[in-house]
Specification:
With 295 residues, the protein is of the alpha/beta class. It is 44% helix and 19% strand. The protein contains twelve helices and eleven strands. Helix 7 links the parallel strand 7 and strand 8. Helix 2 crosses helix 3, helix 7 runs parallel beside helix 8 and helix 10 runs parallel beside helix 12.
Amino acid sequence: MNQAQLERIRSGKGFLAALDQSGGSTPKALEAYGVPRDAYCNEEEMFDLVHQMRTRVVTSPAFSSEHILGAILFEQTMDRTVEGMPTADYLWRKKGVVPFLKVDKGLAPIEDGVQMMKPIAGLDALLKRAAARNIFGTKMRSVIKKANPAAVRRIADQQFRYARQIAAAGFLPIVEPEVDIFSPDKPEAEKLLKAEILEHLNGLPEGTDVMLKLSLPSQDGFYAELIAHPRVVRVAALSGGYSREEADERLRRNPGMIASFSRALLNGLSVHQTDEQFNAALRASVGEIYQASVT
């Protein structure tokens, strides 16, 4: 593991940019950017367009290590280039931004009020490719919609089982068991999840560390115990459907958490903007999220 990158993530000021929209969420991301669905004929053209969008984001002068600690990439983004360099190398060498990779294969159907991750087939092979591409860490997401104790336990078990495998391969895993912000029993689901996470963290061996990416909690400061845990490098917050304004406000009320926003980061950007307009909009978004992350 790159120690300079680890120290950057552990103690740097800033946030994570989530640029990991995959097949299912890419059309919506492109539409929000001003690219309609009839602008491409197949998946290959769609991914070419979203890579152009991501390239415009990461090459912008507004996207820098002054405010951004790391960026989470989709697998295809890892395999592509930015200004002639592999994406992860561009991020770290040119921007000082630590590269992470989304490794999950999407969500299984809802069962018992949760969505587990689909099995991550070929994870070892993917991690070998990621190592060759100079990826530092990984991210994987599952979703909790109801406060079902047994199902929340299964979510945590699955997340930490993969996290141990990923850490053993030399990466920093981001564990992301999202609690749906629209869940009618969100506070209770968060209580169940925190207890499960603490149990797993306490069972991790010395030297095995993780990051956590969690929904902004219903109770301010609710995750302070996780933030302070010796096995936790950092706790990031997902926006989860909140507007950027509301996500930032909630984040400011949770000292120690940093942002890891996707839609909330890219909101307001358009393919039709001039570079000057685009950079100004991204600079404003980055600045607002940074301030909320360091409050």
